Amino acid sequence: MQLFEVGGAVRDALLGRAVHDRDWVAVGATPKQLIEAGYLPVGRDFPVFLHPETREEVALARTERKTAPGYHGFAFHAAPDVSLEQDLARRDLTINAIARTSDGTLIDPHGGRRDLEARLLRHVSPAFAEDPVRILRVARFAARFTDFEVAPETIALMRGMVAAGEADALVPERVWQELSRGLMEARPSRLFDVLRDCDALKRLLPEVERLWGVPQRADYHPEIDTGVHLMMVLDMSAQLQAPLTVRYACLGHDLGKGTTPAEVLPRHTGHEGRSVMLLRAVSERLRVPTDCRELAEVVAREHGNIHRSSEFGATALVRLLDRCDAWRKPARFGEVLLACECDARGRLGLQDTPYASAPRLRAALAAGQSIDTAAVAAGAAERGARGPDVGRAIQSARGVAVAQALGLVSSAAEDG
Ligand code: CTP
């Protein structure tokens, strides 16, 4: 049996990037031999094992990579006569199809090094088309390797796959897995550029695809096009090193602009409510995790109010913080503000403009949090208040605290 290092680790080492997971291919072995040598079988669909000491993944060389549903059991795949070259030929991209021996010799039958130098994401062979997840992988690699282009012949192949209905066959879990990883890359907009280019975006996320060509008011949005704006927002979320929850919220915040009636354009009055409805459908369809869904919904609903909150008095600020559930979830509210900052700075010429709503709302939250709710509730109860009246007393005490902290008229005066 011979072991070769393969895949992303070889690629990343050649690029001078940090290597995280190392993958190996075993040639000339059977599952039985590996198990006897102490390897732990872990592959559900493929013959994959963990090395007894390093715990790194070792896969048996194989000629078949299709991940069709219901395709389990590795006895069928065990093929000790499969060569390294045969294994490499079935991989997705040339830059992922370089192997390295233990003495450091590179085996590169598909010109992976040449494409690394040329900064090209190029498929190895027509076998690329066996696995539609690769469409998303290429898009994700484009978002990560920001100076790489997708080879025109690879885009053409992906377009053919999409036309043949392959993008529709992707299971939601895989779409989310790749999309969420792509959102976390250095330039998420490039993922969407590639998916648009090969026509996959309209199959996978028509709610997003539809935003290109939709105009916005030039005074708020010098970039005008909603799709262009969305991409700037996503790249800003990467620039500000936002977590996935925030990046997903950025993706969903303006979906409603895609369904604004033509006669009211370029205004988008009420788009927030439509964003919420469309976002719910997307989150449901892709089985998006709850923390991402919930944050995205608050941001979709409230981002307009948060942008406008510099004009709000204390009572309106307290109400906004209530709707964001900020008292109970202050950390999440921090993420809401970060998503709104990405939105505000994801506009042409405004990338470096400080986002004034965030510090003001943080100050309002801190002031409202500083009141002793138990004491206010007890005082209200003593005066005979019951149920919702106690809640109102707390609200009003928060309003007073916010007004004082921000130098506004007191909430009582505002209410009156
Ligand atoms: N591979 C493939 N087709 C897929 C998935 C994986 O050909 N659909 C091959 C590629 O050769 C890839 C290797 O398996 O390099 C390992 O896959 P994986 O660990 O998923 O990806 P990496 O390329 O290591 O990328 P990442 O850095 O994102 O983990």
Briefly characterize the structure.
The protein has 416 residues and is an alpha+beta fold. It has helices at residues 8-15, 31-36, 84-89, 112-118, 133-144, 152-163, 172-183, 189-197, 201-204, 206-209, 226-239, 244-252, 271-285, 290-308, 314-323, 330-345, 357-369, 373-382, 388-406, 411-415, and strands at 2-6, 23-27, 40-41, 48-50, 57-60, 99-100, 106-107, 120-121, 149-150.
Could you please describe the fold and organization of this structure?
It is built from 20 helices and 9 strands. With 416 residues, the protein is an alpha+beta fold. Helix 5 runs parallel beside helix 7 (172-183), helix 11 runs antiparallel to helix 12 (244-252) and helix 16 runs antiparallel to helix 17 (357-369). The longest helix is centred in the C-terminal third of the chain and has 19 residues, at 290-308. The chain folds into 3 domains: 1-109, Beta Polymerase, domain 2; 119-204, Hydrophobic Seed Protein (Orthogonal Bundle), CATH 1.10.110.30; 205-406, Hypothetical protein af1432 (Orthogonal Bundle). The model is unreliable at 68-76 (pLDDT under 50). It has helices at 8-15, 31-36, 84-89, 112-118, 133-144, 152-163, 172-183, 189-197, 201-204, 206-209, 226-239, 244-252, 271-285, 290-308, 314-323, 330-345, 357-369, 373-382, 388-406, 411-415, and strands spanning 2-6, 23-27, 40-41, 48-50, 57-60, 99-100, 106-107, 120-121, 149-150. Strand 4 (48-50) and strand 5 (57-60) form a beta hairpin. Helix content is 50%, strand content 6%. The strands form 2 sheets. It has a 7-stranded mixed beta sheet. Strands 8-9 form a two-stranded parallel ribbon. Residues 7-8, 23, 91-92, 96-97, 131, 133-134, 137 line the site of cytidine-5'-triphosphate (CTP).
